[in-house]
């Protein structure tokens, strides 16, 4: 039977909970110790804390968000040494953890969960996928390789393209929903995502910026909430008919500027390593490489 994520359980060093606030309180120090590498875990958990209905609202227990941390030691020496989260239908998201922790997580702790894949550094994701295969007999495939970048010195595109940035409003929701759907389709995202909910979630804290020309909106750039002194840029999407004009570079530079102005100590973003254009333009405006990750999908 699937384990219900309500309440806290300990399994071989892993402790799990369905409470994002408990996760951040207990594992937050570990995650903030390498906040850039753990940016997605921190921002997803913060979204779940602030907006509890955003992930898995009304779902049965196995499909509710689950958060966890690996503990070592006893008493005063007890410490958190790893973390993960799982928000179905998305794959499991791993912090940078040893391969053995990842294998145990797949083999035992998450047994009964609806796992579609895993996102982590190469060693941990590979170990997790191997343990999942051993347990289920299913197959695996690499779906995506990403690179994390951190903003160094912001450099504006020169020349700037036509247009100006503007905040979207209610009248832009339908357009942005279509663009979010197109972005995720191009990126191989989860088909079951509620893209209108994702748009409204970002609008709730001013997390979207449109690049507008005389002909109308041509590009959107989003950011996460500020968590642990950092903001992550994404998604950035330009419809195909508006590409190769520099709109994505300008929109990304603008939201990066705004993130710094809002007090972010680190501004981050992920790119698809298979897309040389995006990797190039972000480096041109000042983003520097941090680390690579891999997304492995599971097949029955």
Short description:
About 35% of the residues lie in helices and about 30% in strands.
Please tell me about this protein's structure:
With 300 residues, this protein is an alpha+beta fold. It has two domains: 9-137; 150-291, Aminopeptidase, CATH 3.40.630.30. The chain is built from eight helices and 13 strands. It has helices at residues 20-33, 39-50, 99-109, 122-136, 173-187, 195-203, 247-261, 276-284; strands spanning 9-11, 14-17, 66-72, 79-86, 92-94, 117-120, 139-151, 164-166, 208-213, 216-223, 230-237, 266-272, 287-299. The chain has a 13-stranded mixed beta sheet, with helices on both faces. β9 and β10 form a beta hairpin. The two termini are 19 Å apart. The model is unreliable at 1-12 (pLDDT under 50).
- What is the arithmetic mean of pLDDT? 93
Give the amount of beta strand, in percent. Answer: 25-35%
Task: Please name the CATH topology of the largest domain.
Answer: Aminopeptidase
**CATH-scheme architecture of the largest domain:** 3-Layer(aba) Sandwich
Distance between the termini: 19 Å
When the domains are counted, the total is 2
List unreliable stretches of 5+ residues. 1-12
Along the chain, the helix and strand elements come as: EEHHEEEHEHEEHHEEEHEHE
The helix/strand class is alpha+beta
The main sheet comes to: 13 strands, mixed
- Described by the principal axes of the CA atoms, the overall outline is globular
């Amino acid at each position: 039977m699937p384990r219900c994520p309500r309440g806290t359980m300990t399994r071989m060093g892993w402790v799990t909970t369905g409470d994002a606030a408990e996760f951040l309180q207990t594992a937050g120090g570990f995650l903030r110790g390498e906040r850039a590498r753990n940016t997605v875990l921190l921002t997803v958990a913060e979204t779940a804390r602030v907006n509890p209905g955003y992930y898995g609202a009304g779902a049965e227990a196995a499909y509710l968000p689950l958060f966890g941390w690996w503990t070592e030691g006893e008493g005063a020496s007890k410490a958190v040494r790893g973390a993960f989260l799982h928000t179905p239908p998305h794959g499991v998201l791993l912090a940078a953890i040893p391969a053995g922790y990842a294998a145990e997580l797949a083999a035992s702790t998450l047994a009964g969960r609806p796992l579609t894949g895993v996102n982590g550094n190469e060693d941990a994701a590979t170990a997790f996928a191997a343990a999942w295969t051993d347990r289920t007999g299913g197959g695996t495939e690499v779906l995506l390789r990403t690179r994390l970048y951190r903003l160094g010195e912001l450099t504006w595109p020169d020349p700037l393209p036509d247009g100006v940035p503007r905040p979207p409003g209610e009248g832009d929701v339908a357009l942005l929903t279509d663009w979010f759907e197109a972005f995720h389709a191009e990126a191989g995202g989860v088909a079951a995502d509620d893209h209108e909910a994702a748009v409204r979630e970002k609008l709730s804290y001013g997390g979207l910026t449109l690049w507008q020309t005389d002909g109308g909106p041509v590009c959107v750039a989003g950011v996460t909430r500020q968590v642990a002194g950092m903001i992550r840029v994404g998604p950035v999407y330009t419809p195909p008919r508006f590409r190769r004009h520099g709109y994505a570079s300008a929109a990304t530079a603008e939201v990066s500027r705004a993130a710094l102005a809002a007090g972010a100590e680190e501004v981050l973003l992920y790119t698809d390593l298979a897309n040389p254009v995006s990797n190039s333009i972000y480096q041109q405006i000042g983003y520097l490489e941090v680390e690579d990750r891999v997304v492995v999908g599971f097949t029955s």
